[in-house]
Amino acid sequence: MSPGHRVISASAGAGKTYQLTLRYIALLAAGADPREIVALTFSRKAAGEIFDRIVQRIAGAAADEGERAGLNRELGGERDLGRADLVGFLRAVLRSVPLLRIGTLDSFFVSVLGAFPFEFGLTAPLEILDDERSVLERERLLRRLFAAETAGGGIEALYEDFRDATFGREEKDVLAQLTASFDAGHRVLLDVPDARLWGNAPAIWPQGSDWFRPGDPEIAESCAQANEALAGMKMNAKQREAWTRFLDAAEGYHPAAGFEKKTEDFFAKLLALYPELEQGGPAEITNHRKQELGQDLCPALAAVVRHVMRCQFALRLKVTAGHYGLLRRYEKEYQRSLRRHGRLSFDDLRLLLASGPDPLEREGRPVLSSRGDDGGRRLYIDYRLDGRYRHWLLDEFQDTSIDQWKVLANLADEVFQADEGERTFFYVGDVKQAIYGWRGGDARLFDEVLDHYRDRIEVRALSESWRSSPRIMDAVNGVFGALDRVPGLPARVRERWARHWQPHSSAGPRRSMAGWVELTEIRAGESKPERLRKRAAWVAQRLRHIPPQATRAVLVTRNAAGAEVVETLRAEGIEAVWEGERRITDCPAVTALLSLLQLAEHPGDRFALEHVRMTPLAAACVTRSGSPRGAAREVRAGLSTRGFEHVLREWAGALLEEGRCHRDPFTNRRVGELLEAARRFDAGGGGGVHDFRRFAEAYRASEAADPSAVRVMTIHRAKGLEFDAVFLPDLNDRDMLKDRDGGLAVECDDDLERSPRWVLDLPRRLFVEADPTVGAWQQRRDREGAFEQLCVLYVAMTRAARALYMAVEPPPRSSSTVVFADVLRAALGAADGGGDEQALYRDGDPEWWGDVEEDAGSPSPEFVERLIDSSLPERRAHRLRRRTPSAEDETAGDAGRLFDRGRREAAAYGTLVHRMFEAVEWIDDLDPAAVAARAGAGEASGPAGRAEAALRRCAENASARALLAHPGGTAEVWREYPFEIVHGGEWVSGRFDRVVVRRDGAGAIARVLLVDIKTGATPPEEAAARYGRQLELYAEVLARLTGLPVGRIDRALLLADRGQGVRVGGPESEQE
């Protein structure tokens, strides 16, 4: 009997992966085939961990009776599993590896689209675009869009849409404006394709809006009425000046320009009084001192306020409609030139599956099914994906987006409609760790899906931590179990948190583990960077006392703070590494190489030329090519034949290896990352120098994480990790109460469909909060943001296993914001005195590290691999330099050589010669004409005739004939034998023209003759010097393949046009 449907809410450290692993084994124990189980998560690392845990748990229980007994207790089945059962499970899992569905949601979506390409409108194989390639494709798409609109006569309409969408934000860089507009709005368009919902006042205010009240007088009339009422009021000169300034500005108000600061502050006071003004008064305003506003003044002021608000919202409606027109044009070109051809972003995967082939036309979209077709809309995934998917396990469900759920929803419905036990549905997560709302995660789904299936699904909550010590748990309970103490935190946010909160405790051996928690208030300087540096110095002081075998991390909320912390720690003598992604263009060596590329494509670019001349690269240019311009010509020729990685590796070597540039670890790492970017660019189809420069500018790289160093990262990056000691110095800078302002607001129904109601490009918060409808949307968004910020703080604190160090600034005298420091201070303690440093909370053993294992800091295999990859760019563990030995004798020329007829004929001739010699096993009893026919030489004239003549010359010349003759004894010959091998840290690709293998009496390889065939007029006396390195590399590869020492591999060149053989290398080298 299969286990039933289940939801597990597992707090931090409670073992989400452990529970998913146990569920998987329970399904196997109930008789499920592993190929019937789908286990999906959000990252490849997490998917790999799930698979590893499943195999380890089964293997461990099979090998150890105690583990087996523990597993049986947890499974609670009708009978205990024996060793034979577990061995059978292990065999079933491992034999099914190619067909297992343990992976990421995105990989599952890729497989579905790959199985149903035509149903989703794809006309070419899938290609997933990475971030860097997406930047290039977007620019190309914009160029195509402008060209198409110009050719079709639609450029004026495009300009109108652009002008409306950017009204009031005129900038010089039109491309930057367009790019920003598409970045912000494209996803919104795909979610809301209906034009009637974009900037449509009746959709936003179905009952009407007070700002658009019909019958309001003209603004000049309203201002005149207000001035008339004010004239009869007693006030001082400053008060009257304030009224005059405001009414003059209101009469000439334009929303794109807005008010100046003093006037806007005055308007904000009137806006807050609008309900009283609209009712006809009286009202009271503070204008230097309090003033009573009578019933003769209030109606006129209310009309003035409505006018300003009407202007603002009318503009935003127009801008929103302009956005739609612009985005729709962009989407149509995107659909035509990218998506339809299978070139997809990860967002596109979810979009196509959730919306159908055309995201703008969603009628009759297909849905996924495990039960076959019922009228044409269901896609039978079991049939196309070659599986029978009966059991679904979803990890980290709180991070699922609504698009992802829409893809899976029908599959889940089918599971719940099946007979009990036949199919099962399981998800695990923790709403308190929902920190990815900014990239689409919808934590509300966790509860909504549960409510949808409430009567058919079992719920279990876990709050015991197998990670953290009791001291950490006490602090976590103190903070998150008493949020009612935090002033200003909205009640609805506290109530939502309380629904998911249970007091935490330590589990198992963690109950007796020593721990330490410290909250310290540090007074610092005036500037934000200075204050952060002082807190980072406090972190460094604490770190000096912690032994290096303990894992230590500093978690921050912002990338900029992370860079500042790393710099300060290193200045304090603490080895630290930043684990966030950084641009690779922050290195002078990289920018010099990019300028050389720019000069290659644009020889007249004096900025690029002078930049190269100012760098050590200039000396390499002079030595190798005579001048920077000469080097640029060589680079241009090389790019056209060999690609960016090959050319950049050559010039990076000249810059670094020949001592022209200081080769410190940072420069080594950045240059290696540039070469990796070049490899990816070439592999993705390449492009011109402009495209590569944009690709390199967008490319991000991260440093290897040495466990012996202090790891600095964002809290988001730390999710899923744990450390012995965690430091939180960046707790004062993010207001929890206000989510980001502006942008496109999308109002949706509050159900599992999330059907959109309206879209509006928001004005500033002052205007938004004054409107009941749009203000209600903003309040919900702020509450979602505040809840997510609580989740971020929770994740940060629960990364700590043994020790948690937190540093905060003193609170301001008055503030309307709530930051992390306020939450901690309210729960754990407030300062009671002065001083630059004051302890607010301390609990536990400050020397907690006594039982930390001594080998905890030894480098892991993963770290060693990453370290090699980052510090030795030319010898990569898994990002290998491509090398083709046969290309190493080529010399670069100008681009004209590519179109030279003689060069093309020579290439055709060389191909025929190699085909002809491939047809020769042994030269004995050779019939050159028959060989030529087998080689497909065709007519005995031109290249074909020359190739046959070369073969005849070699058959008649003793030195050449000796290389082609049977050597006697037991021998075999390999002809045109291709190989791919990792050799010397490089991926070497090539083809042996001819290898003669001689075997001894036992059949073992005794000696090898390597023959490389060359065309052309190279004199025999020069051949060895010219091709010797290529043959040496071939011999090294052959040694790897045959197991022979290099000394037993003879090397020779067959100069086909001269009909001569030349022995190369060793004491027997000779010209025969």
TrEMBL record:
Residue sites binding ATP per the record: 10-17
Gene Ontology cellular component list: cytosol
GO molecular function: 3'-5' DNA helicase activity; ATP binding; ATP hydrolysis activity; DNA binding; exonuclease activity
Catalytic activity: Couples ATP hydrolysis with the unwinding of duplex DNA by translocating in the 3'-5' direction; ATP + H2O = ADP + phosphate + H(+)
Pfam families the record matches: PDDEXK_1 (PF12705), UvrD-helicase (PF00580), UvrD_C (PF13361)
Record's keyword terms, sorted: ATP-binding, DNA damage, DNA repair, DNA-binding, Exonuclease, Helicase, Hydrolase, Isomerase, Nuclease, Nucleotide-binding
EC number: 5.6.2.4
Record-given protein name: DNA 3'-5' helicase
Lineage start: Bacteria, Pseudomonadati, Kiritimatiellota, Kiritimatiellia, Kiritimatiellales
Originating gene: addA
